[in-house]
Amino acid sequence: MSGAVPVSDADEAIALGERLRSQRWTGLQILVVAICAAINALDGMDLLIMSYVAPSMAADWNIGLATLGVVFSAGLFGMMVGCVVVAPFADTWGRRPIVLLALTVMTIGALGCGFAPNLVTFSILRALTGIGIGTLLASVAALVSEYAPAGRRSLAMGIFQAGYPIGAVGTGLVALYTIPAFGWQATLIGAGVISAALLPAVWALLPESVTFLETRQPAGALSQGNDLRRRMGWPELAALPPLAEKGSLPRPRDLLAPDLWRATVTLWMATFLSFAVLYFVTSWIPKLAVESGLSQSKALWAGSIFNMGGAIGGLLIGWLAMRNSIGRLIAIFFAICAVLMMIFAQSLPLTLILVTAFALGLTLQGGFTGFYSLSAQLYPAKIRGAGIGWAVGIGRGGAIIGPIAGGALLAAKQPLWVTFACFAVPLVLSGVLAAVAARLGRLSVSDR
Fold first, then answer.
1. What are the C-alpha distances in Å from 208 to residues 140, 145, 202, 242, 378?
2. Nearest to 43 by CA among 156, 139, 165
3. pTM, full prediction
4. How far apart are alpha carbons 271 and 165 in whole angstroms?
5. Does the structure show a pLDDT above 50 at 378?
C-alpha cells in the first residue's frame, strides 16, 4: 500500500496503521528490534565481564570479597538511578535522544573503568556505567513495544531480551581468553570499545518512536511521523490528532493513578522478587554447580549453558504470548523453574546438571523476559518509559538483595536444597503476582 496520500482523519489513519501493524513485519520494525537487542546485549556483557575480572582485579589491588561487593553494588545502584530517575525523560524528550545519551554515558563509564587508577575512581565509573545501562533498558524496551506489530509485541520483547544472555555467553567465552592474555583492564577497555562502536550505528539507524511523536507532538512531529509511516507502508496523516495535554515529566504518582495503582504495585512486587532470584542464580550458578559436584572449569560451562537457555526462553515465551496471557505464562515458567531449582540442588551426574542448568535458564530468564512485555503493555505511551523504568528500578532493589542473601545462606553451610527453597518460594509468588498484574491491567490479545 502506498503512503503517498495523507489521510485527513487522524484517528482513521492511526486505526488503519494499527491494522497494518498486525499483518506483517516491515524492514524498519525488524531494524529497530535488532538494534535494541544489540543494545540489550551490552547489559549481559557488563554483568558477566565484572564477574570474570573480579578475581584478577582483587589480586592486583589487594582487596577482599567485602570490598568487591561494594564495587558490584555501585554498578547496581547506578542502574537503579538510571531506571528511576533518567529513563522517565524518554517520555518527554523522546526515546531516541535518551537512548543516545545513555549509550554515551555507558561507553564513557566502561572505557574509564579500564583506565581507573584506584578503587574509588573505579567504583564511581561503575556507577556511571550502571546509570547508562539502567536508562537504556527502559528506553529501548519502550521502543521495541511501540514498533512491534500488533499481536506480536511479546515476541518482539522476547527477541529484544534474548540479546542479554547472548551478550553474556559471548562475553564469558571471550573473557576466558582475554584476561589471561591481556589482563583484566584491557578486557574492560575492550568492552568499552564495543559500546563505542555501537554508538554511531545507533545514531545513524535508530528512529524515534512514531507513537511518541504523535502522542507528545514535539516540533516537527508531523513530518517525522509521516516519514516513518511511509517507510512502514502506513497511511500518512494530514494533521496530528488533538493533543489532550502537553504534559510534564511523568512522576511516580502518574503510575499510581486510580486506574493503574493496583496493577503498578503488584507489578513492582513481582519484579522485585524475580530480580532477587534471577541475580542470585546468575551470580552464584558457577559456585552452585561446584556445590552440586562439578569441577571449577566445568562449572563455568554451566553458567554459559544457563545463559544459552535464557536466550531460547525469551524467544519461547514471546512466541507463546502471541496467543496466551503474558502474566499467566510468567507464572507457569516460574513454577517450572522452582521445581528445577530443587532438582538442581540434588547430587546429579554431569549431563543432568548441565541439562538442568539449561532448563533453569530457559524458564527463569524466559519468565523474567515477560516482565518487559508486561510493563510495556500496562502503561499508555505518555508514561510508558517511566512505567518500565520504575518497574525495572524497583526490581534492581531485589537484584542487590538476592546475591547477598544467597551468599549468606551458602556461608552458613545450609544444605543446598534449603538455599534453593528460600528462593523457589518467592519465585512462585512472583509468577502469581505477574498473573494478577496482567489481569488488573485487562490486557487484550492485540497488546501481545
1. 11, 13, 11, 20, 21
2. 165
3. 0.78
4. 18
5. yes
